[in-house]
Amino acid sequence: MIDGTGGPAFEADVGIEGDRIVAVAPGLAGAPEQGGAPGRGGPPERIEARGRVVAPGFIDLHSHSDLCLALPLKQQASLLEGRVRQGITTELLGNCGIGCAPVSGKTRQDVERVCGFITPGGVSWSWDSFASYLDHVEAQGCVLNVASLVAHGPLRLLAMGPRGGRPEPGEMRALERLARQAVEEGAFGVSFGLIYPPGQFADTEELVLVARAAGEAGGFAAFHQRGSSRDTLMQAVEELLEVGRRARAPVHHSHVETVGRRAWSGAPDILQAEEAGRRHGIDITADVIPYTAVCTTMLALYPPWSLDGGVGAFLERLRDPVLRARMKREVAETSPVWPPWEGEGRWTMNIARECGWEHIRLAHVDGAANKKDEHLTLAGLGKRRGADPFDALSDLLLEERGVATQLIFGISGDEATDEPLLPLLRSPRLALVTDAWEIGKGFPHPGAYGAFPRVLGHYVRERRLLTFEEAVRKMTSLPAERLGLRDRGQVREGFKADLVIFDPRAVSDRSTFTDPRRHAAGVDDVLINGLRVVKGGEFRPQPAGRVLRRGA
Which of 166, 314, 351, 510 is the right S-S partner for 518, CB 3.0 to 4.6 Å? Predict the structure, then answer.
């Protein structure tokens, strides 16, 4: 038994009744004919787990499966199978300021376009408020437990439309009201994506006011920080600390990272700054992914001014030869500066310049004509099209109406070394997350199928960077504490029966960047609210999950 607290493993049996753990002690299970833990509505069922580890179900604080969970259960299950089979029983949606609620008739098209890169086929947008989105997911049924943040992007669009710049006083009051309302409707807090439109147009004052509103309602504020390359890395971290200090709200640093080789040495500085903030009373937590590559929208490669007004306005600028030439020049030459909101051409992270076209791959497009280009580097895309990589990508985005996904290599390391990543993985403060999604298109990030088994197999068993007990804590009770979940994240009497049974000698990831849809090895059983959704490694989809609402 690894119970999620970080304490040493011990031998015990677990008794489950309904959806809860009712006993954890040695010698509970008798002979098979005597039964063991009662099943739900049937005869007692015994799961023999000798030689295996029983642990709490893994809690992923950073998922982008928002629109997968809006699908009917059968479609949803096919997209989330890789997540459940790696042991994830609860995940947090609405990250990075990107989310699908709340919306209105006026903002829905803009929100749909921003969410295009995380949207599977067949989604019917039938909700408006944040509460009605949660109700929709609940009505469809969910294969795992779902918690959600409310994303700043849709809130800002509702309050002031897609334009950049500072909100007017009335718009700012509307933003605060909308954030507070969503948390009262069940959001666990608010998320900001400070390298994506429209979040990249928000200054620190706006972040403080929105975070304060969410905090007053009982939520926290999660941040995809504004810059992770060498030039602005520490200013961006200090901004998160400033928000926590001034808003007097809990803050969370999503997927801590250093972007580009020049920034790789910065991980210890991030950890030191945030630890100092904690000593001064700032409630700051963080998480990290166990890879040196990330997945995101292609729009993140372009200068902020080009995205002012939304995706439609961006595409119009891309068709203008003069504006396109300006974008190309800035991508090639611009160095990040701080603060970014004091002048139109200012930028906090130039990903293409830091990582290079040869280290960025096209992960997915919707159009059939461009499917052949998936998994090409952008340098390779340029060669295939006989154009500069910037022009090749820009032409593709016009053809795809702005929706394309990229895999970026060179994040806290690269294919040759993960040494810059290790201090982040080792830190006891940082939860472990996937930051990955599967929408049935292109090449998903392998974390959608293997992030947690990768930690247990590669970083625990093989490299001994962490113990099994510490790794499990960083996947269970640590994220549960950030969310304020009082009955998940531990194997403990009275807690919900979310459990993972894995073989410590065999657990490992098999998904890769070239072959991502390979299920993890060594995860035998997964129980969600007492229902056995993985049995002997076989997925048995059913509506076992619950929609979790903050404060409920």
Answer: 510
